[in-house]
Amino acid sequence: MEGFDLLNKAFDSRVRLGLMSILIVNQWVSYKEIKNLLDLTDGNLASHIQALEKNNFIEIKKQFIGKKPLTTYRVTKIGENAFKQHISGLEKLINK
Q1: Sheet containing 68-75: which strands, arranged edge to edge?
Q2: pLDDT digits over 28-70, tens only?
Q3: pTM of this prediction?
Q4: Cβ neighbours, 10 Å, residue 43
Q5: Local structure of 24: helix, strand or coil
C-alpha cells in the first residue's frame, strides 16, 4: 500500500510525534517547555529524547544562564527530512 513505505518507526510513538511537531516549527525549545507542552514526566521525556538523538533526528544544546542550567533542543536536517517523509506517508494513507 502506498504510503506505508514512507513511515518511520521512530515516530510511531505519540510522544515522539508530538516532540518532533514542536521542534519542526521552532528553532530551539527548552526541556521545560517540551515537558509542559506534552505533559510528560522527566523519565518519559528523557527516554524519547534519547531515542530521537540516537537517530540524529535532534540536536541538544546545554548551557548555563547565570548559574542555572538550560537544555534546549532543535531538529536536525536529517530529522526534518525523516519527519516530513513520515508525515507525507501518513497523508498518503489518509487520502487513499
Answers
A1: 29-30, 68-75, 58-65
A2: 999 999 999 999 999 999 999 999 999 999 999 999 999 999 9
A3: 0.90
A4: 8
A5: helix
Instruction: Quote the CA–CA distance of 10 and 33 in Å, as a whole number.
Output: 22
**Cα maximum dimension of the chain:** 54
The CA distance from 43 to 39, in Å, is 12
Nearest in space to 80 (alpha carbons), one of 9, 30, 20, 29: 20
For the chain, which domains are there?
A: 4-90 (1.10.10.10)
Sign of the Cα pseudo-torsion (15, 50, 52, 36, in order): positive
Q: Name the helix (H) or strand (E) containing 85.
A: helix 77-94
Q: Which three cell numbers stand for residue 36?
A: 509542559
Task: Answer for the pair 86, 6: CB distance below 8 angstroms, yes or no.
Answer: yes
Partners of 68 in the β-ladder: 65
- Alpha carbons 75 and 78: distance in angstroms, whole number: 8
